[in-house]
Design a protein that fits this description.
By secondary structure, the chain is α/β, with parallel strands linked by helices. The protein has a domain of about 190 residues: Spore Coat Polysaccharide Biosynthesis Protein SpsA, Chain A (Alpha-Beta Complex), CATH 3.90.550. Helices cover about 35% and strands about 20% of the residues. It has nine helices and twelve strands. The strands form two sheets. Strands 1, 2, 3, 4, 5, 6, 7, 9, 11 and 12 form a ten-stranded mixed β-sheet that branches. A two-stranded antiparallel ribbon has the order 8-10. The longest helix has 16 residues. The relative contact order is 0.17. The C terminus is likely disordered.
């Protein structure tokens, strides 16, 4: 199998169906399988998706395993050269998938890559980042983010010094759009299921780098993303907003796992394509 395309559905059948329709209209490799993992939506998602898209494999989990558990379930079901993980709230431009696959074929040291994410109106969405530090969480959730030091740190974290027009190696990529090499997964493993929501993508990117695999941003591959930052609220919303609670809990798990040590790479500025001389 050349490519397995994976999305995890949880009570988002309409969005998932829209993603599948855009994939079926797109240019895809000849050897491809589209897999939807339903995380026990407890509605009629599984039946309707199987009925509407007989060419798609639908796996019904008996419990909600979170994003990491859902993705790992799909990857265990099929052996593939590459796995493309997409959120249900994505749509693909016609050549986006083939461009990601071609990039991976050209760059054998890249373990993970992601495309450029755009809002439905065409505005750029941040999808590649530098690694978190504990202070980034504080800056993003408190008034300290409005200070000069906070604004500088957040700008660096969001890679606002980068024009997002060139293929470069980056620390980590948003899990809404990731293509991952099967050989890299064999070495590094799948997503860490200790993270129910958030930070599974940060952690996966770090593990790729620590195992010697590069992580790259590929702007020529464009995807539309109906993204809502449901977790991006102040620290006090921990008590009223579940995504905020999950984000903070996952951040604590991440920093505990790595004992607060920051991974200091040299990526984020060098060209990511072997043909132009990469790191």
């Amino acid at each position: 199998m050349k490519l397995a395309i994976i999305t995890v559905n949880y009570k988002s059948r309409i969005l998932t169906a829209s993603l599948i329709e855009s994939l079926l209209r797109a240019n895809l490799p000849k050897q491809v399988e589209i897999i939807v993992v339903d995380n026990n939506s407890q509605d009629n998602s599984v039946e309707l998706l199987r009925s509407d898209f007989p060419e798609v494999t639908v796996i019904a989990n008996e419990e909600n395993l979170g994003l990491a558990g859902g993705v790992n379930t799909a990857m265990k079901s099929v052996k593939s050269d590459y796995y493309l993980i997409l959120n249900p709230d994505m749509t693909v431009e016609p050549d986006a998938v083939t461009k990601l696959v071609a990039f991976m074929d050209r760059n054998e040291t890249v373990g993970m890559a992601g495309g450029k994410l755009l809002s439905p109106g065409g505005e750029l969405q941040a999808s590649c980042f530098r690694f978190y530090t504990p202070m980034i969480i504080v800056y993003r959730r408190t008034w300290l983010g409005k200070t000069k030091r906070g604004q500088k740190a957040l700008s660096e974290f969001l890679m606002e010094d980068f024009d997002h027009a060139s293929a470069v190696d980056v620390d980590w990529l948003m899990g809404a759009c990731l293509i991952v090499r099967g050989k890299a997964i064999t070495q590094v493993g799948g997503m860490d299921e200790r993270y129910f929501m958030y930070f599974e993508d940060v952690d996966w990117g770090r593990r790729m780098w620590e195992a010697g695999w590069r992580v790259s941003y590929v702007p020529d591959a464009r995807f539309s993303h109906f993204h809502q930052r449901s977790s991006e609220q102040g620290i006090l919303s921990y008590f009223t907003n579940r995504p905020t609670r999950e984000h903070i809990k996952s951040a604590l798990k991440y920093f505990w796992k790595y004992q607060g040590k920051r991974y200091n790479g040299t990526h984020g500025t060098a060209s990511a394509d072997n043909k132009t001389g990469s790191v």
